[in-house]
Design brief:
With 236 residues, this protein is α/β, with parallel strands linked by helices. Helices cover 38% and strands 26% of the residues.
């Protein structure tokens, strides 16, 4: 589905990603692991068009998307749920969800997608008229993921969905990630907790200082404790 080839990205003159190659097959969950500053969020921002690569290609189902505007990339079927949730605090839950469907102009379809999100996250239905800024961190994360699902993405990209959440909420969020994938959505996941990420993933890549230093089936990555310690500093 998604293929990245020899991707180079920099902030100013400083290279951040160094000719990385990565593939996300349709229907799978792929995890991108790495310590802070490894280039994980930069990768997602480049895929979603927020950053423009210096060189290399990104394709979705064989069609080149690198260099396109974020709006066009969303229309092609990629949703990016950013780190830190970034909900619209002054809008209600339902208004936030509608913002996720801005590329769709059919009210009936939007309402169907909202109902789908409420089925997945019943707590959001209970709070649909509540301002997003007054919700707990876990509820905001549910809302952020729900908003990302509103345009029925082919690929859902999640950046640190467990960040700042209580363990019981994290377990719930990751159960929902598995459910979203089971319903047919391909997922590219960034997550500091390697064990947690690997528990829901099919394949994983390890980034270190902008380079992919390890990749493989999740069972293979889990067995390589020494490399996980080296590149994650024990954060797993």
């Amino acid at each position: 589905m998604l293929e990245i080839t020899n991707l180079v990205v920099s902030y100013g003159v400083a290279p951040v990603l160094h000719e990385i190659n990565l593939e996300v097959p349709e229907g799978k969950v792929v995890t991108l692991l790495g310590a802070n500053g490894a280039g994980k969020s930069t990768t997602l921002k480049t895929i979603s068009g927020l950053l423009t690569p210096i060189s290399g290609d990104i394709t979705l189902n064989g069609e080149k998307i690198s260099g396109l505007s974020p709006e066009k990339i969303v229309r092609m079927g990629i949703s990016h749920v950013p780190e830190g949730r970034q909900v619209f605090p002054g809008l209600t839950v339902e208004e936030n969800l509608k913002m996720g469907a801005y590329v769709c102009y059919k009210p009936k379809y939007v309402n169907q997608r909202i109902d789908m999100v409420y089925e997945l996250f019943p707590r959001l239905r209970e709070r649909k008229k509540q301002l997003a800024g007054t919700m707990s961190g876990g509820e905001q994360q549910m809302l952020s993921i729900g908003r990302g699902l509103m345009n029925e993405p082919k690929l859902l990209m999640l950046d640190e969905p467990s960040l700042g959440l209580a363990p019981i909420i994290i377990d719930d969020i990751f159960a929902k990630i598995k459910e979203i994938n089971a319903l047919g959505t391909t997922i590219l996941l960034i997550e500091q907790n390697a064990n947690l990420a690997l528990s829901v993933s099919d394949y994983a890549y390890m980034l270190s200082v902008g380079k992919i230093v390890m990749e493989g089936e999740t069972s293979e990555i889990r067995e390589n404790k020494n490399l996980l310690d080296v590149y994650l500093g024990g954060s797993h």
